[in-house]
Amino acid sequence: ENLTLLRVIGGAYLARHIQNVDLRVTRMDEVDAWRRVRQHHLDQDILPLLEEGKRFMQENGVAAPIETRVTEGKVGEEIIRVAQEGGYTAIVMGRRGLSPVKGLLLGSVTRQVLSLARNLTIFVLGPEAAFNPDCPISPLLLPVDGSEPSLAAIRQGAALAQSFTDCEPRLTLLHVIDFAILAPAYAEGAAPLIADGEGILANGREILKDTGLKGMVADKLLTGH
Fold first, then answer.
1. How far apart are CA 86 and CA 118, in angstroms?
2. Do 74-129 and 140-224 come out as alike in CATH topology?
3. pLDDT surpassing 80 at residue 17
4. CATH topology of domain 140-224
5. Which band of pLDDT confidence, cut at 50, 70 and 90, is reported for residue 105?
6. Residue 222 region, left (φ>0) first, then alpha (ψ -120 to 50), else beta?
7. pLDDT class for 25, splitting at 50, 70, 90?
């Protein structure tokens, strides 16, 4: 019922704008140069962006209270800290378009948030994610492997779809049979694995059926790795 737009000022920004300061002996909040740079960054870059995001959400029908907040620290850890201390249930964040090599060398905020998150639902948007104002979540792919976390993800997807029933969002349940498991099973035939996969998809359909989304649901059983 409450939304917060959060911007974390991380160490990379500090490194770009503060030089010749011995961080071992200096509190940055006591350095006049840093306070001026920080305030300029807030006034010119961060606060206008947060207000623009808040205005966009309100113009698109978000009636819940929207807070804007700026913190400082290690970005991934700070996002999790704010979420846990504030009692949030979900995080929606975008993923920067780093190459695999850069993501490995520089570290990934998204990867860190995913690894640290406990009892939180995380929505991650790709760097080129499209926004359809008429039906923002359609089509929605729900991969499922039969585990409780994957079934919980189906329930979360159903909750999202229930908010957009007027546009009839399309949902697809997907179960992939891993080649590493499938190859040795060929000696006995693949039928047991296929039957297991169909059972997993059936469980997913039952979850969605209870939400009234039966007519908008498809499923796929694929092999891969």
1. 14
2. yes
3. no
4. Rossmann fold (3.40.50)
5. very low
6. beta
7. very low
What crossing angle do the helices spanning 148-162 and 191-209 adopt, rounded to 10°?
40
Please tell me the distance from the alpha carbon of residue 31 to that of residue 19, in angstroms, as a whole number. Answer: 12
* Residue 52, amino acid: E
Domain ranges of the chain: 1-70, 74-129, 140-224
Query: Whole-angstrom Cα distance, residue 148 to residue 203?
Result: 11
Give the class (CATH, top level) of 74-129: alpha beta
| CA pair distance 219, 142, nearest whole angstrom | 9
DSSP H helices in the chain: 11-17, 32-41, 47-59, 75-86, 100-106, 109-116, 148-162, 179-185, 191-209
Q: What is the CA radius of gyration of the chain?
A: 22
Place of tokens 């080129």: 128
Beta bridge partners of 7: 70
Tell me the average pLDDT across 59-73: 89
Burial 2-23 (b: 16+ CB within 10 A, else e): ebebbbbbbeebbeeebeeeee
128 Cβ partners below 8 Å, 6+ apart? 97
Neighbours of 121 (CB within 10 A): 14
9, 45 Cβ separation under 8 angstroms: no
